[in-house]
């Protein structure tokens, strides 16, 4: 299911003296099966974009097309339930939305609300706990007795239990320690590759963009200012510096080495790519 923005404006509190632009004239496509990262400074419009992906917000102007759904300013809230099922949203600190007495009940809540039987919802909870890498014995525990990282996985399991086609992640690793962050990013990558989920990730972590995304949208002051592959986006160091956007650690290191006479073509994005190009230049055999 492709998601397309066609000249979309969104104005917060439109028609009041407090009106403020969220996004302006955004035209972009998030392709079915892609892993799309949205980057940009605070207030650039990333969250506003995300909330259009399942019509939590509707365009003030323009059209958002999500599979068969065309969302405009005129779209009524009726009949949007199937859309909410297809696009799963994991908000920042998703664990704050847990509320049931047991993990099993919390994960089963969404599917039951969408008409899945008690028995099938319980089965889904068992499957989803596995999918997010938690042991079976958490099912009967209170979510509030788990660690922060485990609680977040339970919240993600609850979103996955709706069996969405698109998983939308708003800074999903915020507040986790580096090991927890890495584990969680690997889990999303696995879901993307093994379950075929389309992923839309908002992040400030450029290493994650380089390691996992295949498409990047760069937002600035409500405008989409660039889109392309991570290689295209991160190859223009001057532009990134001008915009004060970070670059992946590997790219930063390669840029420094380039100034000392090393040659990289293309510029490496990941550690493996850096090693493959660096080792022969240091007189060693490449990894292949
Ligand atoms: N509820 C709101 N009411 C009024 N203006 C808002 C509201 N939410 C966001 N805005 C404004 O819309 C613009 C885009 O904000 P948005 O939250 O989409 O940015 P962001 O890139 O997600 O930022 P962050 O990285 O801080 O989450 C900003 O100018 C912001 O002040």
Automatic annotation (TrEMBL):
Top-tier EC class: translocase
Q: What is its EC number?
A: 7.-.-.-
Cellular compartment(s) = Cell membrane
Q: Superkingdom of this entry's organism?
A: Bacteria
Gene Ontology molecular-function annotations: ATP binding; ATP hydrolysis activity; ATPase-coupled transmembrane transporter activity
The record describes its membrane topology as: Peripheral membrane protein
Q: What does this protein do?
A: ATP-binding (A) component of a common energy-coupling factor (ECF) ABC-transporter complex.
How it assembles, according to the record, is: Forms a stable energy-coupling factor (ECF) transporter complex probably composed of 2 membrane-embedded substrate-binding proteins (S component), 2 ATP-binding proteins (A component) and 2 transmembrane proteins (T component). This complex interacts with a number of substrate-specific components, including FolT and ThiT for 5-formyltetrahydrofolate and thiamine respectively. Forms a stable energy-coupling factor (ECF) transporter complex composed of 2 membrane-embedded substrate-binding proteins (S component), 2 ATP-binding proteins (A component) and 2 transmembrane proteins (T component).
This one is known as Energy-coupling factor transporter ATP-binding protein EcfA2
Q: Which organism is it from?
A: Lacticaseibacillus saniviri JCM 17471 = DSM 24301
């Amino acid at each position: 299911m492709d998601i397309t923005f066609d000249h979309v404006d969104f104005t917060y509190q439109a028609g009041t003296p407090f009106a403020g632009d969220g996004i302006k004239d955004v035209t972009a496509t998030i392709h079915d099966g892609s892993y799309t990262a949205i980057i940009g400074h605070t207030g650039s419009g990333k969250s506003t974009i995300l909330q259009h992906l399942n019509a939590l917000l509707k365009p003030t102007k323009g059209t958002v097309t999500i599979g068969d759904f065309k969302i405009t300013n005129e779209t009524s809230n009726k009949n949007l339930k199937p859309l909410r099922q297809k696009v799963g949203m994991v908000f920042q600190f998703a664990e704050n939305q847990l509320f049931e007495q047991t993990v099993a009940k919390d994960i089963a809540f969404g599917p039951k609300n969408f008409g899945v039987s008690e028995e099938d919802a319980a089965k889904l909870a068992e499957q989803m706990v596995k999918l997010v890498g938690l042991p079976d014995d958490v099912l009967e525990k209170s979510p509030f007795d788990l660690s922060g990282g485990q609680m977040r996985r339970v919240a993600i399991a609850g979103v996955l239990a709706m069996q969405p086609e698109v998983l939308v992640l708003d800074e999903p690793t915020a507040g986790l320690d580096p090991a927890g962050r890495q584990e969680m990013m690997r889990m999303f990558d696995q879901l993307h590759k093994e379950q075929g989920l389309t992923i839309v990730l908002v992040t400030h972590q450029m290493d994650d963009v380089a390691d996992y995304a295949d498409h990047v949208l760069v937002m600035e002051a409500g405008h989409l200012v660039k889109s392309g592959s991570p290689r295209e986006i991160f190859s223009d160091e001057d532009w990134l510096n001008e915009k004060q956007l970070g670059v992946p650690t590997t790219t930063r290191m390669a840029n420094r080495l380039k100034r000392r006479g090393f040659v990289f073509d293309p510029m490496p994005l990941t550690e493996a790519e850096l090693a493959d190009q660096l080792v022969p230049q240091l007189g060693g055999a490449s990894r292949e």
